[in-house]
Amino acid sequence: MTAYRAPSWLPGGHAQTIYPLLIRPDPLPWRRQRWQTPDADFIDLDWHPGEPATPSTASAPLLILFHGLEGSSRSHYATTLMAAAAAIGWSGVVVNFRGCSGEINRLPRAYHSGDSDEIDWILRRLRQLFPARPHYAVGVSLGGNALLKWLGEREAEAADCLGAAAAISAPLDMSACGHHLGRGFNRVYTRHFLQTLKRNAAAKLRRHPGLFDERRMRAASSLYEFDDVVTAPLHGFAGADDYWRRASSKPWLPAIRLPTLLLNAQNDPFLPAGTLPAAGQVATSVRIDFPRAGGHVGFVTGSLPGRLAWLPQRILHYFQHEV
């Protein structure tokens, strides 16, 4: 697999991050499946190509994707990765976190960056459903952080569920990432996230009156302020500082025992390059790949209008040839 090289017409991490949002990959014919959670809530899983339960696909590898903040199976990286997996005969499933499938979830809680217990329940259920198939998991951004945290916490037990994993553009240090998004041009991303986060929070408040301080939620101008009033208390944290510290996956990287690809661009505007771990700060099972360019889940290649093929090819190449 060739190393990533950014096209000359798309310089900089911001361009690499924003441009993929303008590229509209062809939608996939998802088959949706709803799971009831152990706490009487639900999540929706989107399968491609269809739920892999037929004898003809019984031995094909299963690729599991955990999306990023306010993402879903509609995200560009989900569409391109699952299409690439299907092209080589794999089946894929995108796990839409609670409240991310287009329908608000039942409980006050939703999803968060450190929700490794949710990751554990999902992966173990998939293993029970398809015990004979190779399983590989990919986490993107928030989903990558949660997956890495699960890998570090479970250590050797992770092999009970997966053959290998990959984390793409994960915010390894939540505090560094959160505060970095509150500075300069990065505030554009913050406003984008807050728009949907606040809309979803308002819908949750209508279902659960008095759940949190609506005035503070609507006045939040940073992810720190939003997490402090909504995300943290709804998921058992004392506040944003406590949430960001306990949810960060970076301290867990030395404990990972499963073969894992850690792919972060050095010009990712969400995470300062100085916070990326050195080789000595991760387990020997972790393959670090930190290209100089690529932005946040960008990695656009080719001449205009650009292509999004490099990232899914990099992920699949890792699972097929480097594990």
Mean pLDDT: 95
CATH class of the largest domain: Alpha Beta
Structural class: alpha/beta
Q: Give the amount of beta strand, in percent.
A: 5-15%
Write out the CATH superfamily name of the largest domain.
Alpha/Beta hydrolase fold, catalytic domain
Distance linking N and C termini: 13 Å
Biggest sheet: strands side by side, in what order? Answer: 1-2-4-3-5-6-7-8
Annotation field: number of helices: 10
Helix/strand order? HEEEHEHEHEHHHHHEEH
Rg, please?
19 Å
Q: Total number of β-strand segments?
A: 8
Helical amount among residues, as a percent range? Answer: 25-40%
Number of domains: 2
Assembly type of the chains comes to: single chain
CATH topology of the largest domain: Rossmann fold
What is the overall silhouette?
A: globular
User: Uncertain regions: pLDDT < 50 for 5+ in a row?
Assistant: none
Annotated CATH architecture of the largest domain: 3-Layer(aba) Sandwich
Largest sheet data: 8 strands, mixed
Describe the protein in words.
By secondary structure, this protein is of the alpha/beta class. It has helices at residues 13-18, 76-87, 116-129, 142-154, 174-180, 187-207, 214-219, 223-234, 240-247, 310-322, and strands spanning 31-36, 42-48, 62-66, 91-96, 135-140, 164-168, 260-263, 286-289. The longest helix has 21 residues, at 187-207. The two termini are 13 Å apart. The model has no long low-confidence stretch (mean pLDDT 95).
Provide a brief overview of the structure.
Helix content is 35%, strand content 13%. The chain contains 10 helices and 8 strands. Strands 1-2-4-3-5-6-7-8 form an 8-stranded mixed beta sheet.
